[in-house]
Design a protein that fits this description.
NADP binding, 11 helices, Rossmann fold, NADP, seven-stranded parallel sheet, Epimerase_deHydtase, NAD(P)-bd_dom_sf, alpha/beta, 13 strands, carbohydrate metabolism, about 35% helix, about 325 residues, single chain
Length: about 325
C-alpha cells in the first residue's frame, strides 16, 4: 500500500494518477472528503480505500505492516489563512504525528513543505538546511511550514528515509477547487475566456518593468516525476529538504502570452496597480536552485513554460478534464 494524504487535492490527486500509470493501485487516499468539487479529482483513479484525515493514525496502527510509503501532501495551503490554530493543527502538529508514526513503523516519508518559507528571498532560494532557522516567511502559512522544517531538522530520531519538498509555483490540472489559491495560469485562462483580455499587476519596483515580475513556475507533471524518483530512490543518505521547481524564473508576461497562444486568442494585456495591502510583501523574483536533487540522480528535463501551459490549457482547462 502507498498512502497519499491530501489525496483529493491538487498535487495529491495528480500523484495518485501518476502512481496508477505505473500500476501502483493499492492506494490509501487520506483527506477531508466533505468537499464535492475536490472529490471529482479522484474519479477514474484506482484507489484501495479512502480514510478520513482525522481517523488516519488509528487506521495506520492497524495496517502499518502493509504500508510501503507515505506521501504526506495534505495541508491548509491558503496564504490568506490567518487562523494560526488551524495552521498549527493541520500543517505542523499533524505532520509531527506523521513523522513519529513513520519512525515507529519504519515507513519512508515524503512531506510537503513550501517555497513560501523563503519569504522575500533575503537569503536566496538554495535548499540548504543551514539557512532554514533564519528564514522569514511572509505569512502564517509559510511560518507553519518552516516551523515544521526546523523541528524536523532538530530531531535525533528520523524516518528511515524522509524528504521535505519546497514546492514553488505549481500549476496544472486538478486545481479547479482552489479558487483564489489556484495558479496564475488557471486565473488567466478564466479571465481571458470571459473578457478576451488579461490584467496583470504593475511593477512598483524600478528594477522590474510591468509584467516582468518573475516566478519559478513548475508543471505539476514534473512535480510528480520528482516524487516518483524519491520513492524509488529512498536512500537514507539522501534524506533531507529539497526544492521542487525548474531552476528557471519566468515572467508573468511570458505566462500570459503562452496562455493566449494556447487558447488561440489575440493578446490583449493591460496593467493594474498592485493592491496596497500586499504591495510591501510582494515577491518580484523567485527561482529554485535545483542542484541538490540533481546531485542524487534526478535527471529528467523540466517541461518548458510554453509546453506546460499548452498541455494544461488544451488538454484539461478547455475540457474540464482531470489528470
Amino acid at each position: 500500500m502507498i498512502v497519499v494524504t491530501g489525496a483529493a487535492g491538487f498535487i495529491g490527486s495528480c500523484m495518485i494518477s501518476r502512481l496508477n500509470q505505473d500500476n501502483f493501485n493499492h492506494i490509501i487516499a487520506v483527506d477531508d472528503f466533505s468537499f464535492p468539487e475536490k472529490n471529482k479529482n479522484l474519479e477514474d483513479k484506482t484507489i484501495l480505500e479512502k480514510v478520513e484525515r482525522e481517523e488516519f493514525f488509528e487506521w495506520l496502527d492497524k495496517n502499518h505492516l502493509e504500508v510501503e510509503f507515505i506521501f504526506h501532501l495534505g495541508a491548509r495551503t491558503s496564504t490568506a489563512e490567518f487562523n494560526r490554530d488551524i495552521l498549527a493543527h493541520l500543517n505542523t502538529e499533524y505532520t509531527k504525528k506523521m513523522w513519529e508514526a513513520t519512525i515507529k513503523y519504519a515507513i519512508p516519508l515524503v512531506y510537503a513543505s513550501s517555497a513560501a518559507t523563503y519569504g522575500l528571498g533575503e537569503l536566496g532560494y538554495e535548499d540548504s538546511e543551514e539557512i532554514i532557522p533564519n528564514l522569514k516567511p511572509l505569512n502564517p502559512y509559510g511560518e507553519s511550514k518552516n516551523d515544521f522544517d526546523i523541528w524536523a531538522l532538530q530531531q535525533e530520531r528520523k524516518p528511515m528515509f524522509w524528504a521535505g519538498l519546497k514546492f514553488f509555483n505549481v500549476y496544472g490540472p486538478n486545481e479547479f477547487h482552489k479558487e483564489r489559491m489556484a495558479s496564475v495560469v488557471f486565473h488567466a485562462f478564466n479571465q481571458i475566456g470571459k473578457t478576451n483580455a488579461m490584467k496583470l499587476f504593475k511593477s512598483h519596483n524600478p528594477d522590474y518593468k510591468d509584467g516582468e515580475q518573475q516566478r519559478d513556475f513548475v508543471y505539476v507533471k514534473d512535480v510528480v516525476e520528482m516524487m516518483m524518483f524519491l520513492m524509488h530512490d529512498r536512500k537514507s543518505e539522501h534524506s533531507g529538504i529539497y526544492n521542487v521547481g525548474t531552476g528557471e524564473a519566468r515572467t508573468f508576461l511570458d505566462l500570459t502570452k503562452a496562455t493566449f497562444k494556447a487558447m488561440g486568442i489575440e493578446e490583449n494585456i493591460s496593467y493594474i496597480p498592485t493592491p496596497e495591502d500586499i504591495r510591501d510583501k510582494y515577491q518580484y523574483f523567485t527561482e529554485a536552485t535545483m542542484e541538490k536533487i540533481r546531485k542524487i540522480g534526478y535527471d529528467k528535463p523540466f517541461t518548458s513554460l510554453e509546453d506546460g501551459v499548452e498541455d494544461y490549457v488544451k488538454n484539461y482547462l478547455m475540457s474540464t478534464k482531470r489528470y
